[in-house]
Amino acid sequence: LQTFDQRVEELQTKTESTAIAYESETEELRRLEGLYSELTLDYEKALEQQKLKQNEKLKVEAAVIIQTWWRECCKQKIITKTKTNTEENKKPKKAKTTKK
């Protein structure tokens, strides 16, 4: 009977120490989960800002390309118009004849 009481007491002590360790680990887990959720939010915000910056950069690059293309179109239009005007000026004019 005494051996049984000792064994039960040892098991009770072991169970209590395990319960205390479990509670402290659970508490630590909750604390770390809170920190993790904060870090996750910060990370998502950083990713969103990076994505917005990247989109803004792409928009600026697209605008530059479109503006360059438009300037070239305008230059070509001016060059074509100038060529047409100079060709018309080089053509000999018909002499005006007067009817008698």
TrEMBL record:
This is IQ motif containing D. Residues 22-49 form a coiled coil. Keywords: Coiled coil. Residues 81-100 are annotated as: Disordered. It comes from the Eukaryota. It comes from Nothobranchius korthausae. The keyword Coiled coil applies. Residues 91-100 have a biased composition (Basic residues).
